[in-house]
Amino acid sequence: MFRKGLFILAHQCGDPSFYPTYKKLIRNQWRSYDELKRDQEKKLRHLIEFSYEKVPYYRNLFNGLKLSPGDIRTIEDLQKLPILAKEIIKKHWDELKPLNLASMNYYKRATGGSTGTPMQYRLSKNDRFLGGALLYRGWGYGGFELGDKMVFLAGSSLDVGKKSFLSVKVHETARNIRKLSSFDMGEGEMREYSQRINSFKPKFIRGYALSIYFFARWLEENQISIPSPEGVFTTAEKLFPHMRKTIGDVFDCNVYDNYGLNDGGISAYECPEHTGLHIDTERSILEVVDGDGLAVDSGEGQILATSLNNYAMPFIRYATGDEAVITEDFCGCGRGSRLLEQIIGRSVDFLITPEGKYIHGWFFLYIFWDYGQGIKEYQVIQEDLEKIVVKIVPDDFDEKQLDRIREIVAKKSPGWHIEFKYVDTIERTGAGKYKFIINKLVK
Known about the structure:
Layout: H1 2-14, H2 18-28, H3 33-54, H4 56-64, H5 86-91, E1 106-111, E2 119-124, H6 125-140, E3 150-154, H7 165-175, E4 177-181, H8 187-200, E5 204-208, H9 209-221, E6 231-235, H10 241-251, E7 254-261, E8 266-270, E9 277-279, E10 284-289, E11 299-307, E12 318-327, E13 339-343, E14 350-352, E15 358-360, H11 362-371, E16 375-382, E17 387-394, H12 400-412, E18 417-422, E19 437-439
Parallel strand pairs: 3-4, 3-5, 5-6, 6-7, 16-19, 17-18
Antiparallel strand pairs: 1-2, 7-8, 8-9, 9-13, 10-11, 11-12, 12-13, 14-15, 16-17
Helix pairs in contact: 2-6, 3-4, 9-10
């Protein structure tokens, strides 16, 4: 009870409405989809009215289409509006600024999306905490309770140098978590990770799907055992069946896939039935659309997001860059939400240093979030153990940023030589896909 109380207190200090909101969300999961949809559409109408009155981009868009806010009252009505691509957001950045932004509490964020190309956006404070409450409810499908011990294996090393040792320890203690870096996965690091997990004995493990899979394989190959958690939560990348099996076998527990994007406010979580991912409705509207931008009730398509709470930067029919398969079936667990049958999603390669470390490709994605302003696209290619080539399609780019990138990469691996090449375009795969990380060492 002490851990739960400390966990709640830490969140309440950030947003006093956190715990009441969380309890409401717990009750919501058992409501019918029709009830959840009615609440969504009520929020949608309010968002549309706000966007028309306060956001110049949307006023111009509606007027150009000869639409009024009253024409968008249901989720189906959203199809009257065009898809909001990242290129449009960058081009109309100033017009997407609400007239009353100065009165709002918000954070500045950046996302790479499925292409890794940085894009800035604003995230309102209350929307961020709502996203956190939904995250905890989603983990709850797998048995998580507030305050339970959890180990993260993801991009946590990005905080190194940005937060003091004391602040990191306070954060980990208050939330009863430990963070392990997927950007440092050499022999020594993974042995240390196994020792820390054995000492901490987490109830749950969460991280990038590929990182956890890679760690599980290392544990298996080295015949190292750790205390079995109650569950493993994977995110950020597609969880392939062979990865799920290996993770489940090695950790001897259930594996639950998660999906979420803060920029679009969408999220979905798997329950013990493993029939799909339950789509959250309280924060956003998730559409799966065909090539014409029309919503499909079942089948494969592109994921669009309409964030219902982020008034600091409303995204309506935002193209996430991800694809999924949606189903008309409902889960046997009794929850009323709709299901994503599977996330097709993105895949990111690992990179290998001359020192023998395995570095998750998101290491570079995070660097370019911070130091990629003025870059249209980029691609990181590992030619051999010592050579990294970064192709850049520049826009209004300050070359001084390259010095900072070199500095960060050199700290990760002194043996890497990084070469930057300016190009007009980034080549696509034969299927028309764009890979922003390529490791030529992996066949």
